Amino acid sequence: MNYKGLTRRSFILGLSALGLTGCGWHLRGKQNVPFKTIYIALGENSAVRATIRRNLEAQTEVKVVNDRKEAIFELLGQSRGSNVLAYNTDGRARIYSLRLTNTFRVVLQNGVELLPTTTVSATRELIRDESDENGRANQERLLYEEMEQSCIHQMVSRMTHISEEAVQKGMHELE
């Protein structure tokens, strides 16, 4: 066995590990939101509601409740769209740009806006395979699901920027 090569390799791996510990990288952990509970104003069986709930509970300390006690998340609109980016030699669309846009806001039960109407969006490119129409439909569906996840992450992130002062001021307007 070659101990000299093993020692050199161990030394290099040790230096690499030491370099990573000093780079500041760490798991994000839970993000702070200035309210304890939130009501999601979407249908009880809505897939979007379930995804928002999972993300909120995984990324923050907020509890999703079934009554409008404190904060209320309202999804005001969702739209999908596509544009043709490129055509093939036969003049058929080859590359599409898919777009998903969500508009939402967060209010208190008295109507005071904690987060005014905000729009988040995601885009992806879809390359059409002429020979596989079913595959293209599945790929498009998966891309929209991925974009929805991205938009939900953006929405949760925006909620973490709501200030404690805005919540306190809005609660006092309730009285």
Layout of SSEs?
Elements: H1 3-21, E1 37-40, H2 47-59, E2 63-65, E3 71-87, E4 93-108, E5 113-127, H3 133-159, H4 164-174
Parallel strand pairs: 1-2, 1-3
Antiparallel strand pairs: 3-4, 4-5
Helix pairs in contact: 2-3
Which strand order spans the largest sheet, edge to edge or round the barrel? 2-1-3-4-5
Helix/strand structural class: alpha/beta
What's the helix count? 4
Q: State the share of residues found in helices, binned by percent.
A: 40-55%
Radius of gyration: 23 Å
How would you spell out the order of helices and strands?
HEHEEEEHH
Please state roughly what percent of the residues sit in beta strands, choosing from under 5%, 5-15%, 15-25%, 25-35%, 35-45% or over 45%: 25-35%
Largest sheet report: 5 strands, mixed
How many strand units?
5
Unreliable parts: none
Global shape: flat
List keywords for this structure.
31% strand; five-stranded mixed β-sheet; alpha/beta; 5 strands; single chain; 175 residues
Structure overview:
The protein has helices at 3-21, 47-59, 133-159, 164-174, and strands at 37-40, 63-65, 71-87, 93-108, 113-127. By secondary structure, it is α/β, with parallel strands linked by helices. A five-stranded mixed β-sheet has the order 2-1-3-4-5. A hairpin with a 4-residue loop joins strand 4 and strand 5 (113-127). The protein is flat and about 65 Å long.
Q: Nutshell version of this structure?
A:
The chain has 175 residues and is α/β, with parallel strands linked by helices. It is 40% helix and 31% strand. It has a five-stranded mixed β-sheet.
